[in-house]
Amino acid sequence: MTLDVGAGLTVVATHLGLLRRDRRAQLAVLDDATSADAHVVIAGDFNEWSARKGFEPLATRFVTQSPGRLFHSARPMAALDQFALSHSLEMRDSGVEQGTLARVASDRLPIWSDILVPEVTC
Q1: Do the strands 39-45 and 81-86 form a parallel or antiparallel pair, or are they unpaired?
Q2: pTM for the whole thing?
Q3: Does residue 91 lie within any of the structural domains?
């Protein structure tokens, strides 16, 4: 299956550290490493328990969103996984897979998203 997501899209999968100071440093590196001109999605395990703190390195260029509680999969209480979207992108929908297989596959439930990427005009 081919999916045309448009030119200039950068997708970064990440698994950040356990300490907030380390996560902030890692997010700063990701911000610096991605082009300000590109559409960028940073997705994965941000390991951040707070909904407000810890995302400061991305605040200028990104909107950060968690699709919901996913950890621990047996009884989801924490929203540790995130999507960070550059301001040029639009989160149309997102969620947490709640199926039986998802609950036994890992200690956290998988997340998904539907992101609108603007068309590039030549």
Answers
A1: antiparallel
A2: 0.89
A3: yes
